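Let us practice reading a record.
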Amino acid sequence: MRKLSNLSKNTVNTAYSQLVAEGYIQNNPRSAYTAIQTNLCLYNNDYTNKLKSKNIEEEYLYDFYPAKLHKDSFPLKLWKRLSVKVINESVDFSAYPDGQGELGLRNEVANYIIKSRGGKCQADQIIICSGFADSMGLLAKILHKEYDTLAMETPGYHIAKKVFDNYSYKIKNIGLDKNGIKLEELENSKAKLVYTTPSHQYPTGVSMPISNRIKLLEWANKNNGLIIEDDYDSELCYQNRPIPSLQGLDNSDKVVYLGTFSKSFSPAIRASYMVLPKHLLPKYKEFFDIHFSRVSLMIQKTLEIFMRDNHWDRHLRKIRTLNKKKHNIMKKELENRLGNTMKILAQGAGLAILIHPTIKFDWDKLKYLAKQNKIKLYFAKDTSLSDWEAIRMGFGGFKETEIPKAIESFAKIWNQCIK
């Protein structure tokens, strides 16, 4: 072996010390260093194999995910251009961001809520959050001293329940009818805090009529209650204009309004917003004076310009038109191929059509056949907190031309499950 005479003693000692620290060799008193026997290669190979086995995702021919937009619907080139503009003109990387969310974005969100949902809000009432669960978690913390029970429409959104469960709230399940949450049951529950999705109920698709919205607001006034209004996909209405938000009808500061950019724009940017009643703002500031929005400054600033320069309005018109076509194609294909063996429970909004068999049906066989045929289906029972069952046939993730073939394949396994 060639002697490396140009290495200093300190360098060599440092190298050996590092090998000792990392456990590769051991230092024996009055003796040479000796290597420690390890199964490192075996460990690494074993770990790699386990990691691979855990991360192998099944490839599906057709994925009917009920809350997905096709990747081509995102305005990527425009977003990249605006991002560069933001870096060059708007972002101050030497400053701390606004913990409540950037004021410019909050102004744009407030204008949008007022214009599109008939809301009543100002920028100082808006908090920018990182998705629905982040909004609900923040809210659960703010309200915990005043409320210990959450009433929820059932079937309902499982994430809402999980978040409030994590903060040790008692959950009261309130039933639904054709008009949404049952107000008499809510009254009898004695709860003073309620979570509801009035514009497009999750998962049944029921829309709460204006008369019941007024009654729900009256309940809040009479009981000194608070309503959490989740308006998660109100933009995606294909047949009629959405009924005005509860928040816009509220004259007593009794509604917390939640919205998100996930369903109509992109779930990847993790941006949502919450409108707090003015009486809750001091509590927010008291408990969260060191809170920082989890949405990156770059995304907030880019989204602000996107909304300010009317790209948001144009994008929504495009998305509504595109997904209305997809909705109508899927509805027609379902009706033609499944006929009177199924009933459409909800349609006309959102990114999915809900169906249920009208005849004796083997649900377990459908799940088995779907997996065997590489068709990914989504069942309401899995996420709706009840035994209420339906199949949520998402159309947003498909191209228009893909839908007929997807429904043809689905119909083949559906027909095999009819008893």
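A brief commentary: The chain has two domains: 62-71+320-415, 74-313.
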